[in-house]
Amino acid sequence: MNLSQPDLSLLQDIPPCLRYYDIPRVSVTATGLFSMNTALRKQAGDQRKFRVKISPDGRCLALYLCEPHNVRFSDKGGYVFHHGLLQLLREKGFMPPVVYDLEWNPDEQAWIGLCRELPAPPDLSSLPMPEKASRVRHSRKARNV
To answer: Taking a C-beta distance cutoff of 8 angstroms, is the pair 6, 57 a contact?
Structure first.
């Protein structure tokens, strides 16, 4: 085995490992609850009013700081019920919950994110049905032997 020394000056740092809860995100539930997660609330500070825009296909969502705002999240919990957004997402083929991972874009002065698509559940009708298990009865004689 050749253990020659690699050129360590060519090594690059890898990106920091982010835990799931450290990534700013917003979500829309089946009841129309549009909410900021804790990471976004912390990074946004007291900002709760946004001008929210969505791409034509629904995959990109942006929360702009500019006026006029069209969404105001609650001060404490960072949520609002938004049935219009829920309906719009459903019309675009999204099934709740819909989650957008966000990043701050200083040029746009906006939180911009892409939808984290969850895989569709498997089509169970295509799976073969298991054979019905039959109960095996043991006679009393067999148990006493």
So the answer is: no
pLDDT of residue 60: 96
In angstroms, rounded to a whole number, what is the distance separating the alpha carbons of residues 92 and 86?
10
Type of residue numbered 84: G
141 domain-assigned: no
Q: How many domains does the chain have?
A: 1
Mean pLDDT by 10 residues, the chain (145 residues): 72 82 95 97 96 96 94 96 97 94 96 79 67 64 57
The parent domain of residue 46 ranges over 20-118
In a domain, 3, yes or no: no
3-state secondary structure of 87: helix
Structure token pair of residue 23: 């990534």
